[in-house]
Design goal:
heterodimer, A: mainly alpha, Arc Repressor Mutant, subunit A, 44% helix, B: mainly alpha, 0% strand, elongated
């Protein structure tokens, strides 16, 4: 456990608005804040808190978008199809909320866009990852692996 | 790092500032493409073309609102 340290997600991934009460509650429980005797509370000091995910408030997380275009450039409609497919149509978000997220990511330099002919020869705006976006994705995957390792250690402790 | 990113996205910012009309037209075209593809998919599923178009717009949940959000995202 000593080689694990607290890693905060980058500031730009944190929500600017205060989370709603139900989200607050789940976060407190997940971080073990309310149950000091619970072994899960030990995670708090050592593991990163993963806050970037598909928001329950109807917006799409950066991570899902960035991951879907990691392999090949895609246009918005194809990204929305992939998100639906990957989530097994569980993701009940409107297609429209994808575009503001894409424009924001482009503005932040994570992805770049260019116009190219699509499958039906009509031109479409294709998004692909920039070097910065790829780096951030790798960083985020490393954070996730650290969290998973910390949880495994805690579970093994409680089982022992 | 922050400065580097600022320089990386500078052409995009300048484009939004000085070529506003073009950026707007591209936003329209991008969203129209999405709606047409989605309507095509609904039509393949058995809806008549007009109903498919309406369903695609419904699923998008507010075309003008989303455009406004895109403008906000560009800053």
């Amino acid at each position: 456990m000593n080689n694990c340290k607290w890693v905060d997600p980058p500031r730009r991934w944190r929500s600017k608005t205060k989370p709603k009460s139900e989200l607050d509650q789940s976060r407190v429980v997940a971080r073990g804040g309310e149950f000091p005797s619970d072994p899960a509370s030990q995670i708090r000091r050592h593991a990163p808190v993963v806050r970037h995910r598909v928001s329950i408030r109807g917006t799409i997380g950066k991570r899902e978008i960035v991951k879907s275009i990691a392999l090949e450039p895609m246009h918005g409609w194809a990204i929305s199809q992939r998100l639906k497919h990957v989530s097994g149509n569980v993701l009940q978000v409107s297609d429209g909320s994808l575009y503001p997220a894409l424009h924001k990511l482009e503005q932040e330099g994570w992805i770049k866009a260019e116009w190219a002919p699509s499958e039906n020869n009509r031109r479409a705006k294709y998004y692909s990852l920039t070097r910065l976006g790829r780096k951030e994705l790798e960083k985020e995957a490393a954070n996730w692996n650290r969290l998973a390792a910390a949880i495994t250690q805690v579970v093994n402790l409680t089982e022992a | 790092m922050k400065l580097k990113r600022w320089f990386m996205t500078l052409p995009l910012r300048l484009r939004s500032l000085f070529r506003q009309n073009r950026v707007e037209l591209e936003l329209d075209e991008e969203i129209r493409f999405h709606l047409d593809r989605q309507a095509g998919q609904f039509a393949e599923g058995g809806l008549d073309p007009q109903e498919a178009q309406r369903a695609a717009i419904r699923e998008f949940k507010g075309v003008e609102l989303r455009k406004e959000e895109c403008r906000d995202a560009r800053g």
